[in-house]
Design brief:
126 residues, alpha/beta, globular
């Protein structure tokens, strides 16, 4: 089973590389993307049952990933939300935990951990 994954990332190169990597290595299925807080919140609100995993960057073209995280608090218990950011500091990790995020990964050195997380979720959801 492929994880239906929604990705919020404003850098097109990172977004496309991330989708390609996760589709190949973690068997995700990208169901949509957003570059801004408003786009991300709107899609997630309009498609509450069409995703298993949301991967959210914190710094976006408009708004913040934190706003998207807050809007996902009432998601189904089977839906997972993770942060992928260059700013995965201890303070950011703590704030994300307060917002109900399932995991935080650093873009610079935790992509392998994100792939492993996706693989584990596939087993759990499948």
């Amino acid at each position: 089973m492929r994880l239906k994954t929604y990705i919020v990332e404003d850098n097109p190169t990172i977004r496309e590389n991330l989708i390609g990597t996760l589709e190949e290595l973690a068997s995700i299925n990208s169901v949509g993307t957003a570059e801004t807080e408003n786009e991300g919140k709107a899609w997630l609100a309009a498609n509450p049952n069409n995703w298993d995993l949301a991967i959210v960057d914190l710094f976006l073209k408009q708004g913040s990933g934190l706003g998207i995280l807050a809007s996902c608090r009432d998601r189904s218990s089977s839906q997972k939300v993770v942060v992928l950011s260059n700013y995965a500091t201890a303070d950011i990790r703590q704030r994300c935990a307060q917002l109900g995020v399932d995991a935080v990964f650093d873009k610079s050195n935790e992509i392998d951990a994100l792939v492993e997380y996706c693989l584990q979720q596939r087993v759990t959801c499948g």
